Amino acid sequence: MQDETLETFQFKYKNKIYECVGEDREFQIMQFKYLVEVQDFVTLKNRIINQSIDRGDGPDLKIIK
Q: Which residues fall within 8 angstroms of residue 5, CB to CB, at 6 or more apart?
């Protein structure tokens, strides 16, 4: 099975592709990729939930696929 090519600000978790879209997306993608690398899935799940909330200016994270 061939894996999809991820864009610069995207990461994959539980067969979903997420994209960081907020102002500080360079920092956020570093954090998400690190959490995947060290397999800290509790923190990763919490950050996905928190970053997906719209706080008036749109969410900082969106599901691509």
A: none
